[in-house]
Amino acid sequence: MLADTTAKGKQIDTPEFLAGGGEMGQRIRDYDWSGTPIGPIDQWPQSLRTCMRIMLTSRQPIWIGWGKELIKLYNDPYIAIVGGKHPRALGEPASVVWREIWSHIGPMLRQVMEKDEGTYVESQLLIMERNGYPEETHYTFSYTPIPGDNGGTAGMICFNTDDTERIISERHLQTLTRLGKRLTDPRSDNDIIEKTIATLEENPYDFPFALFYTLSGDKARLSQTTLTEETTARIPVEILLNGTDTGPFPLQVVMDTRKPQLIEHLRDKIGAMPRGAWGIPPDMALILPIATIGTKDPYGFLVVGINPYRVVDEKYRGFFSLVADQMATSFANVHALEEERERAEALAEIDRSKTIFFSNISHEFRTPLTLLLGPIEDVLNSPDSTGVDKYRMGIAHRNALRMQKLVNTLLEFSRIEAGRVEGKFSPVDICSFTRELASSFRSAIEKAGMQLYTPCDSNIGDVYVDVEMWEMIILNLVSNAFKYSREGHIEVAVRHVGREVLIAVTDTGVGIPEDQLEKIFNRFHRISNVQGRSQEGTGIGLAMVKELVKLHKGSIAVSSKLGEGSTFTISLPLGKEHLPADRIITGTQRTVAVRHADAFLTEAIKWIHDEEQAIHTAVTPPPTMRYKVLLADDNADMRDYVSRLLSEHYHVVTAVNGEDALEKMIQLRPDLLLSDVMMPKLDGFNLLKNIRNHPDIKNIPVILLSARAGEEAKLEGLDSGADDYLVKPFSAKELLARVEGSIKLARNRIAQTEVLEQEVKNRTLELRLLNISLRRSNEDLQQFAHVASHDLKEPVRKIRTFGSRLQEEYGELLPDRARLFLDKIHNATERMYSMIDGVLAYSMLNASGQPIEKVDLNEVLKNIESDLEIIIQQKGGIIRKGHLPIIEGASILIYQLFYNLLNNSLKFSHAHIPPVIYISGEITGTTDQPIAEIGFSDNGIGFDQQHAATIFDTFARLNSKDKYEGTGLGLSLCKKIVERHHGMITAMGTKNRGAVFTIKLPLQQTEKSI
């Protein structure tokens, strides 16, 4: 026998077979069994004692039914199964405890008791009423007969395993998996809807019925359903979304809020709906908006019946949300594919129109260009022209030739894309022709300090090419090689390999990034920030070369290494069999003349001139009393023209590229920068970015010059931080006005900034003084609240003490009305005392300087349970705890936080249902920033989720103080404590079904005190 103590402190002897057993061990020992068919404990038979010992020491849910009535005994793990019937179920007949499932388990229990045969069922579906409402459960259990000491079957023992979560989770996963497979590649919206409804129909447990409304304008129309014709007739086929519809499905609310809506009392609104797998029709439905982030309106609305035996909790809602998300993703994919098809067709049409446009416009350009070049050349060749005239006409002639080159390139490319270029192929001496074309650049290459090599194999067979096309191919490749090489050499090699001739153009230039090699032949593709001699160009040169090579039935490839150079290799078949017979010109090898080299050579020489000018350009001090303007442009002619316009009014310094401009900006600190956008080494936008990030020059005004016109281009320039954006071509007057305006604005801005800085200094001093005053006032207010609360406590304590003595010593002598008054005094005193405690806690919380230390949350809860022991016993409360972590914090505040939450769960419990409080803890977050996540959940009165945010407000109350006492400060204190620890607290509740409070606190604090 073991010694035990009753609640009244009386020591009794406990039989060894009833030792331990946690809560149920104590309840069984305290229960008066003499009034039951089992009889007093000391008369229990040995077989029952043996089974009791097995049950109380087991961690598996077990219950024992004893005698003909199967009087119920159970252990701690079984409490979760009996639920809200605990502890009333102890000592009751099994037929009373489980009356709702007796039709299922009664026959099995009779088999055990009458035939002495055990039973075993696996994952048995049982609709149990454990918490005041029927719910779906699944259990694996066995009924085993217990032999009596004198023979026969005296009772039975049942071992349980709860399979509910596993069965439901597997069912959900199966539905989601099927839906995911079927919606992998939907063809249309209707295909998605049909496959979804068909899949949901296969799970009648979670979807007693399902239907889908498709959104069209201001109407939603029923498009698919699992309902019968009879049921379908009771629901609206079309719902107007104009706020006037009052039908059973509030789709307008769902569309406005983009949140699911739960419809209750469905049977009253529509009548009996399909039952699915259950014996009763559902009384609730959930409307889910099918939408993705970014869409203006939902694709439609999925309406599903709710399992009548499940609580619509977050987990159940989450399952429905996953179904809706799969549908929404499929809708988005179908619509994206359709939009992509339409976009591709539109782009193809735009592409055709663009090709026709370029072809037409290029033809139209040639006439005015011819009329420009003729008179310009006449002036250049005239002996009567002065030096100034020839200088100006030289600029015009160079730029007219460049425009002619661009027009020819555009025309040729548009003809190729339109399929109007077929070529005329004749035999040529590929070595001498290619060498002659490359040699056009020799003077420019050697002037730049580089070398040109043109090795060639001898005895190469006949090579058929279109002469003009081949000229464009070689000139473009050699021009590119020179453009992106500043030193070393350029090699144009012709080699005979088998049945092919290989032409390789190699340079020792900047090279091409590896990720750009596949895009280099794409039309209009340009590699940004490449350190070439110029940024000028159309971006179609290499694309055109590739197309011209293809017309020769050849191929072109590129290899490159960044910083070391590139090689473009053309492969051409020998002979003429690969070419169209009607496009071949027979005869001996032709002697060809170079026709287009002048334009390429003029451009190359201009690049060298630009670099020479950059080398010899020095920064000279500006004349006094003149504003300094830095002009950055890689085109020498443009620099000369703009510099000449501005020099009469400003001191002008020029830069030939972005890097040169940035160095001179830092060195010279000009009053304004006038910069081209397209420049080598550093373009205008990146130059502007560097300027705005430099502390010494960030406020200098910048005007960008660009050939890109239109509002979008202008907005892009201004958004990047430019003060103004000027589109080429521009007039001299406009340029001067813009420059003058930007400089004046900048000067005014500097003056205003100096005034504002002084005002800010004055305001800052005033605010510092005000802050000191406010801090002192706050400290005085906290001290007053603390002292006042302490002073108030003393008279209230005396009222409470003497009131209690009056009630204890003279309560029986007082008339009923006097006792009523005394009760009111006692209740008011308790409320006042509680309010003073709240104010004290609030003032303590607002006081800074609470020390940070290691806090073991398990010890904190243990102390709080001890402090709340009386109220826990009075309410029959059960507290279940997981292991909680150790955190850093202010121990007195953490204690107040946990005390308030635990006390709230006890206070707001149901009147006739013992409170069950679960306290869990886990470590989340990252290795660098671990988070302690603590959960307080209970089975109390709960609250509507719409109050989840306001519940933490100061003095917030959701319930009448006559029914639930309190100050309204408790949860407000909790929130402030958590925030003081740099954490967060959230609440989730369901009316009459409990609440969950989740706290997230850092494991470590950065301060020494808070």
Note down, in words, how this protein is organized.
With 1010 residues, the protein is α+β, with helices and mostly antiparallel strands. Among the domains are: 2-162, Beta-Lactamase (2-Layer Sandwich), CATH 3.30.450; 168-341, 2-Layer Sandwich (Beta-Lactamase), CATH 3.30.450.40; 422-607, Histidine kinase-like ATPase, C-terminal domain (Heat Shock Protein 90), CATH 3.30.565.10; 849-1002, Histidine kinase-like ATPase, C-terminal domain (Heat Shock Protein 90, 2-Layer Sandwich). The chain has a 6-stranded antiparallel sheet with strand order 10-9-8-13-12-11, sandwiched between helices. Strands 4-3-7-6-5 form a 5-stranded antiparallel sheet, sandwiched between helices. Strands 15-17-18-20-19 form a 5-stranded mixed sheet. Strand 31 (984-989) and strand 32 form a beta hairpin. The longest helix is centred in the last third of the chain and has 79 residues, at 732-810. The radius of gyration is 45 Å and the shape is elongated. Mean pLDDT is 82; it is low at 6-11 and 614-622.
* Lateral strand order in the biggest sheet: 10-9-8-13-12-11
Which residue ranges are poorly predicted, with pLDDT under 50 across at least 5 consecutive positions? 6-11, 614-622
Main pleated sheet? 6 strands, antiparallel
Instruction: Compute the separation of the termini in Å.
Output: 54 Å
Range of strand content: 15-25%
Tally of separate helices:
27
Helix content: 40-55%
Output the radius of gyration: 45 Å
Molecular shape: elongated
Which structural category fits the helices and strands?
Answer: alpha+beta
**What is the name of the CATH topology of the domain at 422-607?**
Heat Shock Protein 90
- From the 3D coordinates, which CATH architecture of the domain at 422-607 would you assign? 2-Layer Sandwich
Mean pLDDT comes to: 82
The CATH class assignment of the domain at 422-607 is Alpha Beta
Care to count the β-strands? 32
